[in-house]
Amino acid sequence: MTAELPIVCITRTPPGPAAVAGARLVIRPDTRPTREELLAFIPGAAVVITMYSDRVDREFLDAAGPGLRGVCNFAVGYENIDLAACRERGVVVTNTPNAVTEGTADLAWALALAAARRLIEADRYARSPEYPARGQLGMCDFLGQDFTGRTLLIVGAGRIGLAVAMRSRGWGMRVLYVARGRHWDFELAPLAAQRVELHEGLAQADLISIHCPLTPGTRHLINREALAHVKPTAILVNTARGPIVEEQALVDALREGRLYAAGLDVFEHEPQVHPDLIANPRVVLTPHIGSAETRYREMMTQMACENAAAILAGREPLSRVTG
Ligand code: 8YV
Asked: 109 CB under 6 A from ligand 1?
């Protein structure tokens, strides 16, 4: 007689092949479950592979039951997980760092360039009957901003911030960064970046890109007071977490012309988007797709599965979250 394999529940269908050595996978469709559906899906699981939108709290751990040994987040961010509750019950938590770095950095630049060059307005115009009716544009139509030789401020000097800063070499940008401590990977060649206080950096930056995790200390880091320092020609990009920016203050800064444009992949009340952001053509919006590049999402699947396999085998996982 063969012993029953432990169950690994995956709360969405992940991209690429998913397999966990020594386990039976149970996979939901790739749609967001209601809380009730989520809690009904996980009883008896030895490991659950979760999305950043699945709240892992005591109720979740109770629903999974005493056999739960690991929660493997399909994301680098893990603010959805109550780490203390997991620790109390001996549940190992992992995430997928590195795999999300390139995709998120690429999207930050896509949003930055789209905002600077007014891509949303231009795209709408090119599709509209107004374009052929009016004919070739004049010399002053669709003027935007540029990044060559300008100043980039990275808020949060982790892997993604570094990847965004490295890409700025193509525009010969001066790089400033905000972080709690010094980061030599930012300060040494080729970036030779300078660490600054937040308000000082905001006052100098032409492009501001946010890359810190959401913690009680970074919630509303970019608030009304901070936004009072930005240049009217500056562009703000957020691919990190929505609540880091005080959304109403951002809306007001854009409306009053105190900030040129914004590129946002994340929102304060996700998936709700502030109606003024929707209405403002100077804002480029994407629905939290930072890591959504096929190659890297497949890498996230592999990492999450390898983490799950390691937990089940009693080995140290690739990327344990220690808090
Ligand atoms: C999303 C992210 O999690 O890694 C993170 O923290 O926010 C993104 O990569 C991903 O889009 C889906 O889980």
From this structure: no
pLDDT at residue 255 in the model: 97
Q: How far apart are CA 49 and CA 51, in angstroms?
A: 7
Q: Please tell me the pTM assigned to this model.
A: 0.95
Q: What is the largest CA-CA distance in the chain?
A: 80
pLDDT in tens, 92-143: 999 999 999 999 999 999 999 999 999 999 999 999 999 999 999 999 999 9
Ligand 1 in reach of 311 Cβ (< 6 A):
no
Q: What order do you get walking across the sheet with 151-155 strand by strand? A: 194-195, 174-178, 151-155, 207-210, 235-238, 261-264, 283-285
Q: Is the CB of 100 under 6 A from ligand 1?
A: yes
Q: What is the pLDDT of residue 283?
A: 98
Give 290 Cα–ligand 1 centroid separation in angstroms.
7
**Could you tell me which residues are beta bridge partners of residue 94?**
72, 320
Domains of the chain (ranges; CATH) run 7-95+294-313 (3.40.50.720), 100-285 (3.40.50.720)
98 vs 76: CA distance, rounded Å: 8
